[in-house]
Design a protein that fits this description.
The complex is a heterodimer of chains A (about 375) and B (about 210). With about 375 residues, chain A is of the alpha/beta class. In chain A, about 40% of the residues lie in helices and about 15% in strands. Chain A folds into two domains: about 1-5 and about 260-380, Aspartate Aminotransferase, domain 1 (Alpha-Beta Complex); about 15-255, Aspartate Aminotransferase, domain 2 (3-Layer(aba) Sandwich), CATH 3.40.640.10. Chain B has helices at about 10-15, 25-30, 70-85, 90-95, 100-105, 120-135, 155-165, 170-180, 190-205; strands spanning about 35-40, 45-55, 55-65, 110, 150, 155, 205-210. Chain B is globular. Classes of the chains: A alpha/beta (about 375), B alpha+beta (about 210). The interface between A and B is medium-sized, with 27 and 36 residues.
Chain lengths: ~375, ~210
């Protein structure tokens, strides 16, 4: 199989796999005071330090969660539960219209509880203008949440500029950095966000582990899961020890491979896009072609439908994803692509190729060939000319 | 994006990967006796059907689509259904329903049914086009078999049923799409009952297997 769906999830890094295998027999509860507990505590604290040093923050600022969706929920839902507690009357959150569903749907849920939400529209290139964010700020704005990198089109948001605006107005700032980790160097000493979410399974660790970074000086959060004192009482429940060990190793590998991956995968994506566009007309790139992460290419093949492309590529053993309505099980195509274009034929025909550390030149050349063949075949049967 | 979306039957896959009767020459060159065209790129589905008629039977049916696997599979199936055994009589072909096509395909995932309803519509338009071109307008069946639910806007039970097949699952969405019950409002209760009935009929199981 040629796996070009690394933005959906990634295979385990061999070193991560080894770290997990080597830890399978360690079952101590990190909260236990005896030797096996202390041994496990040391291992998860080692992971925490690894992650903290990668993000340039303090280990105390790292909270392990079951994933980025949980991290996003914790931060955003804290916005209101803590406000009720603090008797704070502010009730407005600013975000963009292309956030991940774990942000958008959580905010829709808060909206039901009378929090007002401003969803700032991105420009046609999939990037939000910080000035638009600033213009939406109100006296009662209690949070700004803008993703670092969009998961469908890979565009990089001006998170630093937005965070500086948030800081100037004394508003807590959250960023969902799931797709940025390992691709863009993140230095939390230089990036004044209060909260940051990340996930393990997009960076070659297993599913079910993630991190919520909470700056020490930022407002308190209300835990989503209450119970024991784990994670400084900010996330109760016995730690996912294997997941945490795996994530620490995955981050260590990110640090080692980041530069090399960037050079190699950027070249492969260029080869993919060039190969496809040289051989096919009416192909467009969704999202800003420059200001995007190097591993994602979201293309629209005008006049044919995404799911048909996806399934025919699947027949060739190539795994991609699409924003077409038919793949989402709804009547509407991807809200991200729809945010960029008014032409529904483009939205329904989008395919996301997301490359990873295992992608090689042969994969790309075979993919180009299969895409050209598939698109030519499907266009021949399309009534739109 | 639930996993069931990809649970296509072998027959759907066969028709999707190797579609039958695609119009692969120029439309003018093909010179069809009747042409029907439905859908729009906005809905993500378009269908164009071309028929040739001989002795009041469908001798050939060719088609083109901008659609997903389910649309391609069901239209390919339809083209086989109406042309096999010497071709289907026009009167019979007019009566083909999405359920009949889904039956032949061995079922479709429930959330893909709305993708399969364009083929029979386009076929009826092609037959209509043929009947008009050949001066047989009087043979065009009147769509009065279905009772009118919304008198003000002339919306029939069959119209409601088709909306449900196309993916509508509640009254509010039905109203947004058809404006049903927005004038006098007398039909709202009946329409709500029908929505519940057809949603129950088509979407209760994950996979609608057709009427067996």
């Amino acid at each position: 199989m040629i796996y070009l769906d690394n933005s959906a999830t990634t295979p385990l890094h061999p070193e991560v796999k080894e770290a997990i295998i080597n830890s399978l027999d360690l079952y101590g509860n990190p909260s236990s005071a005896h030797t096996s507990g202390r041994q496990m505590r040391a291992m998860i604290e080692h992971s925490r330090s690894e992650i903290a040093s990668f993000l340039h923050c303090d280990p105390d600022e790292i909270i392990f969660t079951a994933g980025a969706s949980e991290a996003n929920n914790t931060v955003l839902k804290s916005a209101i539960s803590c406000c009720a507690f603090c008797n704070d009357t502010r009730g407005h959150i600013i975000t963009t219209n292309i956030e991940h569903p774990s942000v958008l749907n959580t905010l829709a849920c808060l909206e039901q509880q009378n929090i007002q939400i401003s969803r700032i529209k991105v420009k046609d290139n999939g990037i939000v203008d910080p000035a638009d964010i600033e213009a939406a700020i109100r006296p009662d704005t209690m949070m700004i949440s803008v993703m670092y990198v969009n998961n469908e089109i890979g565009t990089i948001q001006p998170v630093k500029a937005i965070a500086e605006i948030a800081k100037k107005h004394n508003i807590p700032m959250h960023t969902d950095a799931v797709q940025a980790i390992g691709k863009i160097p993140i230095d939390l000493q230089d990036l004044p966000v209060d909260f940051l979410s990340m996930s393990g399974h997009k960076i070659y660790a297993p599913k079910g582990i993630g991190v919520l970074y909470k700056r020490r000086t930022s407002k308190n959060i209300c835990p989503l899961i209450t119970g024991g004192h784990q994670e400084k009482s900010m996330r109760a429940g016995t730690e996912n020890t294997l997941g945490i060990i795996a994530l620490g190793e995955a981050i260590r590998q990110c640090r080692i491979e980041m530069d090399e991956n960037k050079a190699r995968i950027s070249f492969l994506r260029e080869r993919l896009e060039h190969g496809i566009m040289k051989n096919l007309d009416h192909v467009s790139i969704n999202g800003d072609p420059k200001q995007r992460v190097y591993n994602i290419s979201n293309m629209s093949f005008k006049n044919i439908e995404g799911e048909s492309i996806l399934l025919r590529l699947d027949m060739h053993g190539i795994a991609v994803s699409t924003g077409s309505a038919c793949s989402t099980g709804s009547l509407e195509p991807s809200y991200v692509i729809t945010a960029l274009t008014k032409d529904p034929a483009i939205a329904h025909s989008s395919i996301r190729f997301s490359l990873g550390r295992e992608t090689n030149e042969t994969d790309i050349d075979q993919t180009v060939k299969a895409v050209v063949e598939t698109v030519t075949f499907l266009r021949k049967m399309s009534p739109i000319v | 994006m639930d996993g069931t979306s990809w649970n296509y039957s072998d027959k759907v896959k066969e028709h999707f990967f190797h579609p039958k009767n695609i119009l692969d020459i120029d439309e003018k060159e093909y010179n069809a006796d009747g042409v029907g065209y439905v859908g729009s790129p906005a809905c993500g589905d378009m269908m164009k059907i071309f028929i040739k008629v001989k002795d009041d039977r469908i001798a050939e049916m060719k088609w083109q689509t901008f659609g997903c696997a389910s649309a391609i599979g069901s239209t390919s199936m339809l083209s086989v259904m109406v042309t096999r055994d010497g071709g289907m009589k026009l009167d019979d072909a007019w009566k083909i329903t999405p359920e009949m096509i889904i039956d032949e395909l061995g079922g479709l995932p429930a959330n893909k049914i709305h993708c399969s309803v364009l083929g029979d519509k386009a076929l009826r338009l092609a037959i209509k086009d043929y009947l008009i071109k050949t001066g047989q307008e009087q043979r065009i069946p009147h769509d009065d078999k279905s009772r009118i639910i919304c008198e003000c806007l002339n919306i029939s039970e069959d119209d409601i049923r088709m909306e449900i097949l196309e993916g509508v699952k509640d009254f509010k969405t039905l109203q947004e799409r058809t404006k049903i019950g927005t004038v006098c409002g007398n039909c709202i209760d009946t329409a709500k009952t029908l929505v519940d009935f057809y949603v129950g009929k088509y979407y209760t199981d994950e996979v609608y297997k057709g009427k067996k």
